[in-house]
Specification:
By secondary structure, this protein is of the alpha/beta class. Helices cover 31% and strands 17% of the residues. β2 and β3 form a beta hairpin. The longest helix has 15 residues. The relative contact order is 0.18. It comes from Cryobacterium melibiosiphilum. Pfam families: Abhydrolase_3.
């Protein structure tokens, strides 16, 4: 059942402690500890992945830093991952700002799994894999792969994600993106983004590239939070329904009046509502 969550007013941004960790692979991971400093974590660690169409984004963007900082203020330990980015569509020669080489599937997923293994070893309460937009797709894929490898997460949090190799055009005009996203998030543009990440038709159909439409019986319990007016919502809604159909416990929310990437806008009602939902669900409240 989809719930339309009432919006909550944002609370002041807390100050949290952060520290990097070393991994066998050079994968940047940033830790956010519950505040005040030294306060024990009240539940599992959230491993959080930013979005950006697979080819952009960083640990510094609000969708990574502000979300993790806010969740830590709710008593959760959070780790964010600087996974490798896919080539910029049409500009495959470009590196990232930090001159880090780019890579298509499965390299970004490999980075997430490297971080997941390390974070799991430090998280006696288990790990929840979560992310926004493309990060949600990576989180879902990582949940499948971690389960395949015998390290299943204790949950998944998927914020305005997309999970299918081919995007679907929603029949409901009220659910479609508005403004400039009518072009940048048009179905043809989103499908080109997916092809850019996968790199080939074979990989495009790989369940670990885009889990939607594949076997999801062993997927963990899931929190799904979608934006109301978002061209990617069609995939997010369909994926949540696929999980329910195979018996996965799913809590679903659509935030009224919201648009894609609202977690990149701290200080808004939508941001505060989503963070509260994630914290409450993760802590079992």
């Amino acid at each position: 059942m989809t719930e339309h969550a009432p919006l909550r007013l944002p609370s002041p941004m807390p100050t949290v402690s952060t520290a990097g960790i070393a991994l066998p692979e050079p994968v940047p991971v940033q830790w956010y500890r519950p505040t005040p400093v030294g306060r024990p974590s009240l539940g599992p660690t959230v491993l959080w992945l930013h979005g950006g169409g697979f080819f952009r984004g960083s640990l510094d963007q609000p969708e990574a830093h502000a979300v993790a900082q806010s969740l830590a203020g709710h008593g959760l330990s959070v780790a964010t991952v600087g996974y490798r980015l896919a080539p910029t569509p049409g500009l495959s020669w470009m590196k990232t700002r930090a001159s880090i080489p780019r890579g298509r599937f499965p390299l970004p997923l490999d980075d997430v799994l490297a971080a997941y293994r390390s974070v799991s070893a430090q998280s006696p309460g288990g790990v929840i894999l979560g992310g926004a937009s493309a990060g949600a797709c990576l989180a879902a894929a990582a949940a499948l792969r971690a389960t395949d490898e015998g390290w299943p997460p204790v949950g998944a949090v998927l914020a305005y994600g997309f999970f299918h190799a081919a995007h679907r055009r929603t029949a409901d005009v009220q659910q479609r993106a508005t403004g400039h996203r009518r072009i940048t998030h048009a179905v043809w543009a989103l499908n080109a983004m997916n092809r850019n990440y996968a790199g080939s038709r074979t990989e495009l159909n790989n369940r670990l590239a885009f889990p939607g439409g594949h076997d999801l019986h062993e997927f963990p319990r899931t929190l799904s939070i979608n934006a109301e007016k978002d061209n990617m919502r069609a995939s997010g809604d369909a994926f949540a329904s696929e999980l329910v159909d195979v018996g996965v416990e799913v809590q679903r929310h659509v935030l009224p009046g919201t648009r894609h990437a609202f977690l990149n806008r701290p200080g808004t009602d939508a941001f505060a509502t989503a963070v509260s939902l994630i914290a409450e669900w993760s802590l079992g409240e």
